[in-house]
Amino acid sequence: MKFLTFFFCLAAFSVSAWAFNAEEILHKADRARGGVSDGLTWNIQLQDSGSSSASEYEVQVKGVDALVRCTAPARQKGELYLFNDRNLWLHRPGLKKPISLSPRQRLSGQAANGDIASTNYARDYEAKLEGEDVINGKNCFRLFLQAKAKNVTYDKIRYWVTKDTLLGVKAEFLTLDGKPFKSALFEYGNSVLVSGKKAPFVSKMNIEDAMVKDNKTTIIYTSPKPAAIPESLFNVNNLVR
Amino acid sequence: MLAFVFLLLGSLFARADDWQQSFLLTEENRHLANSLLNPNNLVWPLANNVIQAESRSNIHVEKSIFLLTLRPRAETALETVNGANREQGSLFFQELFLQMKLTENFSLSAGRIQFGWGPADSITPSNWMAPDLQYESSPNFEQFGISRVQASWSASDIFHVMGAAETGPLPDNTNSRTLTKEQNQERLLAKLEWSWDNTNKIIGLTSGRVHEAYGYRAREGFYSAITLNDAWLLYADTLYKQTGAERNWDILAVPGLRYTFPGGAEIRVEEIYNQAGLTSAQESTAIKALVATNSLTQSLLQSQSASLSGKNYSYAAFRWTNPAFLSMLHSPSFALRALHSLADGSQAILSDFDFGIGDQYTLSVYGSITSGGDNSELRGLFDRLLGISLKMSI
Fold this sequence. Notes:
heterodimer, A: 13-stranded antiparallel sheet, 17 strands, 14% helix, B: mainly beta, Porin, 3 helices, 18 strands, 9% helix
């Protein structure tokens, strides 16, 4: 009887420990993709396969809010995307009020609107540790992420995080019935000062269609740096100035 | 004078912290309604065909706590009216204002400023200074700013207060086809907006005064939006309007809902209740009386971007931006809108489709079809309209 009690206690402890670890792993992996509470800015360039033109954006992030400004191509220059937590607004120069968009809406190629400033997987998804795999020669945790709310970019994600550096290196984005419809590979060639310490920061995200492998979109991240950003910047009323 | 303006603009371009420049070439063909309002297009000779070239600049110059925003527009148009050609041109500022940022959260602005808010699509009653009726089919349509002074305070990302007082008009040339002339009155407006639950719930209150023939009359507005989930949004926008010597209160209300499909397409349905509007019988009497004084066409032209004269309307809209099946096009966008007057049975269906070509060009095709009786409200001016526009951005 004592053995059984001990066994169940141990099992319960193990389950809670695994759940805690998965959340912790996800939280730490987010930091290298901009998921920090202090203000950060960076630039991104978005390039679709088979297209000669690239889109460029300036990103300002603080906590759960982000303001993204399009700087190229010329026909989209000046467009502003405001992320208030999971809600998204678009404002175009000359228009009198912003319009609300779904983060799931396609932005360009394989990238959804939510991909350009989606930094907080730990906030948006419930994580479970599924197992371990080797990705590009590195030992990784394999996490299964389930959306906590319905208005996030993806319903389910399978996410691989390196065991030694806790960086998310691969993601599979899944349909409601669990089939992958696109995947992404991440690289971390940038660094940024977080709480006075130099930390790795994402430099490239390659998104690939699961069905048509030639359909690819590459997001290149440059110039990440800490910045003092006022919260009023993210008030939708201030978009129309 | 013109040389001075261009010299000034050139100098501002050179100093601008941010600017966008675009040129538009548009052809619009209209099948005009032969109605009691405008029989054979003789009472108010409207253009049957318009070819228009337009320059649009958006300039921001930032110096210390000051931010200057300029949106100069230059238009020239060749119009065909009942077989004869006429040329028109205008130079104006869609917006021109100076903002002084006194703190991170508090700013003062003065000049011609456009402004909008609220979740409703067809019309925004609580924004009674510029209610923005969705009756323009061109996706390039821009509304005119209103000259005013404004104070704005954002306590955080979820709380915002704004107060504004209207000032005199800016002296510029506005023969623009696409802009309603600035109509200045003595008007004051305050707005308070609060959002919570990660901005899934929004409440806004507006309060204002407008100077009319009998003195100052009150305008009290309310708007709210509740995001139920990623698919459903419920909202309402309402104005309580005090009018006349008796200070009667009328209500203009727009309840609505929006459904967003997983692929990003969205559909909206709205109902418009205008207590002060006219029933079908009243509208018919009013039209006959006003045609006698030849003023309704003028007022229709002005009102079509500002107000509705009927009592009840229904509105539906479908929009789809960047649909996956059009992934071979750059940023394709499609919209279909329908406004139906329950008072006289008239309706307007408007549609537009645009997409990018390369880095610089955007091609838009748009049109509208109206139906209803000869003197119905929404068939007052056009039976059909078809336009095509090429925009080059540099």
